[in-house]
Amino acid sequence: MTYKKKVKADKSNDTFNNDNTSKMLGFDYQKLIALEMCLDGKPNQHIWIECKGDIADENVSIEVKHHIDKHNLTSNSEDAWKTIKNYVDNYLVAKTFDSLVLHTTSSIKSDSIFFEWNSLNASDKFERLVNHNPSDSIKSFYDKIKSCAKSEVLIILKKSLIFSDQLKVDEKWNQLRSHPTFILIPESYRDNAIMQLHGYITKAAIDNANMWQININDFHRDMQHSISKFLSDKIQFVFISNDDIDSNYEGINFYFVQKMKDVNLKERDQQQAVSEYLRAQKSQIELLNQSPVLIDNLKAYDNNVETLLHDEKSQHSYSLSSEELDTDKADNESREVYFNCRKRPHETIASVQNTEKYYRDGRIHHLLEVTNFQWKYEISDL
């Protein structure tokens, strides 16, 4: 995304125009940082903007400072002093966070009291602040910090971190273009996809006028719909061979293997099942590393596999009576269910090309591992 400043002949307006552009870019930059936090957010999280700092989640409050040109965070920089003062002013809220972060595009030279700030303990940070001779521009911030209870200031400073030399707005935009969320989107459409989600951040403020808050669950759900129109190519399935899996699994007591033993499936079938299970697990990890947005598609795939298991077992249950449970006939029916499930044509993962059969079979074993489903028939199955 390219931002252009309007050039006017009247140079008396140059400072005004530059200030407006700087403010506009600073606010868009803040929303880009918030967007990145949303993309990386965990289920059930919330992101707040302009509520508990410029941006915040449950653990960290962030103040964002963007400078178009090269800028240094000096000992008298308002960016740092005002940030600390604001956290001191809002001590009761600030103390609830694990970290209080100043995220800035500025650099910090060795002659600044904020040099190597993150390596200092709270007491050393405090001494640097109170022993500083402040300029007129930061005197009010200095006085406020010094007038507060030292114990409270120390708690704020213990949590205080400065992340300097951060990417500028254009660099952050380009970095987001390579975010795993957008890997399935052709490069020519990625800017449009980012704009769509960038707009989502703004829309959240309109929808929540009292508190600018984003529910990560809602964001991820709406994101799928928002960027689906930009998806054109499918991701390639990641094939894992038997040689690619860890052979040190013999001591692991898999539940699905025990469930196979319960119906007298042979050892070679058990070994094949373990191989398929491990290969499928590794394929899934690789797919999610390439594109985390596949998670919903993979869950839907597992749901279909689980339906297959229950349908097949239900169908064969009509051949059994309660008196025949725990007999050779019942075990034979269970083995029929097992092999019929494996023989059924396998589906393709949505948005993934060339899904291998071992993945479907491996997910069968996975479901036996994590659910109560078993091959052996019980009275509740009849």
Highlighted features:
single chain, 382 residues, alpha/beta, 2 domains, 6-stranded mixed β-sheet, two-stranded parallel sheet, 14 helices, 52% helix
SSE blueprint and pairings:
Blueprint: H1 14-39, E1 46-49, E2 55-56, E3 60-65, H2 78-89, H3 91-94, E4 99-104, H4 122-130, H5 139-147, H6 150-159, E5 160-163, H7 169-177, H8 187-207, E6 213-215, H9 216-228, E7 235-236, H10 255-261, H11 267-290, H12 295-317, H13 328-343, E8 352-353, H14 357-370
Parallel strand pairs: 3-4, 4-5, 7-8
Antiparallel strand pairs: 1-2, 1-6, 2-3
Helix pairs in contact: 1-7, 1-8, 2-5, 4-6, 8-9, 10-14, 11-14, 12-13, 12-14
Explain briefly what this protein structure is:
With 382 residues, this protein is α/β, with parallel strands linked by helices. Helix content is 52%, strand content 8%.
Molecular structure report:
It is a single chain. The protein has 14 helices and eight strands. The strands form two sheets. A six-stranded mixed sheet has the order 5-4-3-2-1-6, sandwiched between helices. A two-stranded parallel sheet has the order 7-8. The longest helix is centred in the first third of the chain and has 26 residues. It is elongated.
